[in-house]
Amino acid sequence: xxxxxxxxAGTFGSGKTTAMRHFLEYPSSALNxxxxxxxxxKVDVPDLNAPAFVVGxxxxxxxxxxxxxxxxxxxxxxxKAHTHGHVLYEGALxxxxxxxxxxxxxVHPTGCDVYAFLDTPLEVCIERVLGRRAAAGNDKEFxxxxxxxxxxxxxxxxxxxxxxxxxxxxxxxxxxxxxxxxIIKEFENA
Length: 190
Hints:
This protein is an alpha/beta fold and 190 residues long. 40% of the residues lie in helices and 19% in strands. Strands 2-3-4-5-1-6-7 form a seven-stranded mixed β-sheet, with helices on both faces. It is globular, with a radius of gyration of 16 Å.
């Protein structure tokens, strides 16, 4: 049985963290460093034949790998966890990490890397980011330029990985969990 390394990709507000939190609803336990910092989580998903390891921390509204200092550190955690089971990771920074990105280059030689891009429309991403800002009491004027640039970069990453024949999926942003689970199970049983 092969263990997948699954990147859930999208821009800010695309639903990456929400999709990952759905996996954390299964029985899970935090994996801490020697300094007692959350490195990730071990998740027991009933329908899978191996545990899943979620890289990053989810103790605030925005989770994932964006709190990890470098892409090399992200890759190190992914590869370490991969020896024990499936690996799931997401973050705005790695979402646009294409063929030349440190994480992509580190995990691709395993032959287990799969990329799931959420199909969230830009307008929905903007609406969600505005909602988060309002909930946090951030009333500064919002300039969507950075989000639009990131959205374009993520689409470019999707196209480049696909053109290079990487294992790339487009995932329905409205209910991604069933499709993500299906991708993992198919990989596990290949």
